[in-house]
Amino acid sequence: MIAIDFDVLSEEIIHILEKEQQIVLATSSDDKVTARTMCHVNDGLDIYFGTNNKSRKYEQMNINTQVALAVGNIQIEAIATICGHPSNNPEFSKIYSAKFPHLAGLYPPHEDDVVIKCTPTKITLFKYDGKPYWDILYPDQKKAYRE
Known about the structure:
Layout: E1 2-4, H1 6-19, E2 22-29, E3 32-39, E4 41-43, E5 46-52, H2 56-63, E6 66-71, E7 74-82, H3 90-99, H4 101-104, E8 113-128, E9 132-138, E10 143-146
Antiparallel strand pairs: 1-10, 2-3, 2-6, 4-5, 5-8, 6-7, 7-8, 8-9, 9-10
């Protein structure tokens, strides 16, 4: 592994997260893994989405906070945190409305709605330049490597 610039790779990943409208979220519990495509927003490297506290993904994240996300050529390992109702998370609502103005007013807030924050522990960006390689970001360590 070769050390590379953490800030440069972070900005590249943030740009991709901001541009992409959908992300795949995988959750697991009781030896069952499920995945689904979700609308997401990000604040830096942190990824947010809304869900319902009756959903399977919510139930799984209550049991196992380790999740995986994928978008384009990015794979993300993260820890999910349940942040409460969207009304208690105005920054999420602001970012979500800006990214998805056509969805922001479509669904009225429901009492069972919750915001989930996914804090990445490892982000892998696949690249190809005559041969395959991976740029790997460890946000909590503020380190980046090329493999």
